[in-house]
Amino acid sequence: MRLGESTPKAFVPVGGIPMVRLAVDGLIASGAVHRVVVVVPAELVESATALLPTTSLTGGSMPPVPVQVVVGGAERTDSVRAGIAAAPDAAFYLVHDAARALTPPALIARVAAELHAGSPAVVPALPVVDTVKSVDDTGVVTGTPDRAHLRAIQTPQGFDAELLRRAYATDDAATDDAGLVERLGVDIVTVTGDPLAFKITTPLDLRLAETLRADQPADAAEAVVR
Hints:
Belongs to the IspD/TarI cytidylyltransferase family. IspD subfamily. It comes from Nocardia neocaledoniensis. Catalyzes the formation of 4-diphosphocytidyl-2-C-methyl-D-erythritol from CTP and 2-C-methyl-D-erythritol 4-phosphate (MEP). This is 2-C-methyl-D-erythritol 4-phosphate cytidylyltransferase. Keywords: Isoprene biosynthesis, Nucleotidyltransferase, Transferase. By secondary structure, the protein is of the alpha+beta class. It has one domain: Spore Coat Polysaccharide Biosynthesis Protein SpsA, Chain A (Alpha-Beta Complex), CATH 3.90.550. About 30% of the residues lie in helices and about 20% in strands. β3, α2 (about 45-50) and β4 (about 65-70) form a beta-alpha-beta unit. The two termini are about 30 Å apart.
């Protein structure tokens, strides 16, 4: 595993709390979701269920948000299909990555708001700050895309439910859900992402996440774990 941990990435703690719990807490704290489906390998269902009680973190009038744990598949697309199947009556889906555990609730709410405003597909995006090169199979540079037109895409990615079901009705593979939707010829809208929604993939990422969690005010940290 790139994190260098024996624990599956989603269960690696950041500031003492597993990433999957932080990600779910962020979804609920956004006030934008009515149900959360967590997809994990079969052998981790019991552990995930123990970590993820049904709860409400808003402290307001919002009713508790049910959290369901379901078994995923061999590939990422299989797992997303399992999540879709577990919520067949949904009008919209937000597909989130537990490795983006520090994603601010405000970003999640922005994606949901754009869906409710009528966009069928929405992704958070940040400008690319590095120069990007395309290379061939031998590593030789073949071109330099104009980074002014490039964006780094984050999660959650939001979709009209019927659109995402259609995208997953095929056997195509993609590195993200928007990639499947693009093939249907649907325009995908971007909203401004957030640097805190970075993907915790390497040991350096984990150190950064730990530092950011430690720098949070005590009341902010409590708000996502109570």
